[in-house]
What does this fold into?
Amino acid sequence: MSTETLQELTRRPYAAGFVTQVESDTFPPGLDEDVIRRLSAKKGEPEFLLDWRLKAFRHWKTMREPTWQAVTYAPIDYQAISYYSAPKQKPVKASLDEVDPEILRTYEKLGIPLHEQKLLQNVAVDAVFDSVSVATTFKDKLAKAGVIFCSFSEAVREHPELVKKYLGTVVPYSDNYFAALNSAVFSDGSFVYIPKGVRCPMELSTYFRINAAETGQFERTLIVAEEGSYVSYLEGCTAPQRDTNQLHAAVVELVALDNATIKYSTVQNWYPGDAEGRGGIYNFVTKRGIAHRAAKISWTQVETGSAITWKYPSVILKGDDSVGEFYSVALTNHMQQADTGTKMVHIGKNSRSTIVSKGISAGRGQNTYRGLVKVLKSAENARNYTQCDSLLLGDKCGAHTVPYIEVKNASAQVEHEASTSKIGEDQLFYCRQRGISQEDAVSMIVNGFCRQVFKELPMEFAVEAQKLLGVSLEGSVG
Amino acid sequence: MALLTVRNLHARVAGKDILKGIDLEVAPGEVHAIMGPNGSGKSTLASVLAGRDGYEVTQGEVLFDGKPLLELSPEARAAAGVFLAFQYPVEIPGVGNIHFLRTALNAQRRAKGLEELDAMDFLQLAKEKSKLVQLDAAFMNRSVNEGFSGGEKKRNEIFQMAVLEPRLAILDETDSGLDIDALRTVAGGVNALRSPERGMVLITHYQRLLDYIVPDKVHVIAAGRIVRSGGRELALELEEKGYGWLGLDGGKKATAEARR
It folds into this structure.
């Protein structure tokens, strides 16, 4: 494998690295109970939520940052982070005309038009800028179907009973260090509610943008799919190029009630830091879903950004005949580190899970798959299939696979397959002999390697994901 | 003018001299067979002509259409019209056969300043060409060579050649690993692609292939040099007498392999 091509391919500039000039309302750095009270007051939250935040904060203070993951970074000073930053404007917009044009332009530059006339076909977007949601599109159309899709803050105001009923039921505030921190200080995020038997008429998506410096982003997403409903949800993320590290600690909770299906797709492209490892986002995220009887939760993620990725989108297969899926592509380049995977916890009878993980390491990137398949005693006839493939580009990167399997029911069938390969000279030469340039050949081979995962993505995201991997689009989709 | 001119070509691999002065001239429309025992340098010659990494040319020159070939990248040689049918076609998991070939064809067309073919036109072309080697549609959507049988891989090479329409086709042991039916199919495809403008170089260990693709010229290569050239009859003589006949120490090896 020629190093020049790799260097060329891996040296592409980060296109989303610009900064938007907006006046922001930003808390000074620091974290104590007073900050949390001010944050809660600013958002006009009900008592129950403030109490929950404070409980989370008190619990967080008793916890220690985890150290078991295969990543290294300098200690984070949690007092040096600002826990709230919002563009100066009213938090809820009656119409998009009231949104700061600078912010609209930002999203447009990122390929996410929010103007009514330019809306993405059949995708409703909730745009989260730093700590708050600035716009949500297609609300009326969704409301007609009974679907609630709004910012988390709005959900707290308009549907407090739903928030109260489900918040923290999948990821309790005490779950882990970063989830506890998020529970204490989360500022916004998305909320989705699909009523019984409704098939959500369009894709829902949230686009997260970190803009301000020295802030953390702590959003929280809650999706509730009532019995027999269906929703497909996408999230995208970018951040400006800065030489300091920024913390992003999000929590996502999914509740799929009986016979419901939630498909959750992520294209994560936070700023990864420069070639020497300066700057970049620390992406420490807790994502988990609970699948009730015959419900299905499917996670698909394409992780190309962030200096460090630490996330394990998981499914608790609580109901009988429930289904969990995890499809992942994680690419680490330069000095990026990823420790990612999933947990499938089988509780219900005949519950099934599928895990397909594709790790690509280039430069000096380190990529770890870490996954747990746990079959409890109750999970008669549980099935799991796991496939972990790693692709190495160059000889300074690393790929690691750490599967944990715990089975307490003898009728379970658990399969694990793993492979590690390098892009071969032979493959490259074969492509080039047919007239394909070296660079296109690398893209094509990498893209082929990821195909099993890409085909799980909705069309729009499949396109974006391929672009992110530096792949020529021609003919590769569909 | 000759399509391909090889003059006094010397090449080494991993510090070892393999080609020690090859001379070869292929005119448009001609089919040349290059035969020789294992390790004689047949496949090295193919790799050097196609531009594979790791082969160092230490002396001599190669002209393609009168222009120096060796300074071009492999993809530029492909665009100029040099095609190599691989002895061991490579698998590329997850990349559709038809997508791969269209990307290749369009890359070559771009290099020549031609318009790219859109998906519909390409599919039409591919369908037509696939008949030459009896490949069906299901085959097109599978990943490049992945899970193909030996015969399917070789048929796929000829199919690619049919679509890319090279000026010079080098077939590196295309007959190896084929049963008699597959050999007939592949040879049929190759014969259909013979044309007054196209030159072909067939690299083979056995004369069997030459029963189906009748060459204009036959060369015997040994220890990095062409030691004998002639017409079709040379191959037949070789078959009868073995490589040992020419005083080549590879004779025993060739027989041993033939028995396998």
Summary: The longest helix of chain B spans residues 97-111.
